[in-house]
Description:
The chain is mostly helical. It contains 10 helices and no strands. It has one domain. Helix 4 packs antiparallel against helix 8.
Amino acid sequence: MTAARASSAWCARAAEHRRVSTPLGSPLLPIPDHHTPEAVRLRLEDGPDQGYVRDFIYGTIDGAVTIFAIAAGAVGANFSGGIVVVLGLANLFVDGFSMADSNYRGTRADHEARDEVRRYESDQIDLIPEGQREEVRPIYAAKGFEGPDLGRMVEVITADRDRWLNTMPQEKHRLQLQGPEPIPAAAATFATFLVVGAIRLLPFFVDELTDGAADSPFLWSTVLTAAAFVAVGAAKGDTRNPHLALGD
């Protein structure tokens, strides 16, 4: 896209954005609808979306590479296409289940770690509340608060127990308050492993059904593996585009 076309596209989008004014009436730049006060409030109330891109990528890459290794070894040993399919299908379900189970247990361990830290901080607040208040102070001092503002910030945080308990794991232990759920994460890994691995075996399956009429099944399988990596890269790139992530 040329600079002129890019500028025109931006202007077209900006024309759809609402203009807001300061209390003194001086206009500000156009802001997207997702940055209006109401939209921001609703987004913060809903909390962050729990995406499973990492789990999809995990299953896609391992599904492509693992089945590729099996197919390459079988072809190198001059096995028939049927044997390649049988070996590949066996690996699909066994290795796919193993990966999904590992992802499930790892994700659940993250949840348990967050819960354990929260319980620990809750006990500390009950036993030594003043000491815990002093732990809040340097956290916000490092963010630039000082003097009366710092004291007020500590007072506001520690006045509400839930807010206090949310602050300590996030700011002190650098833990996310929320994360992917174990079962959906495992399901995403298992599903993508099966789909990508099955696509990888498709040329050999067609070759077997047509009695060897398919041309160069290993070559086509290699092309499909490369396409899977390209698709993963494209999906990863989309998630890093703030305009796409926000629907702009």
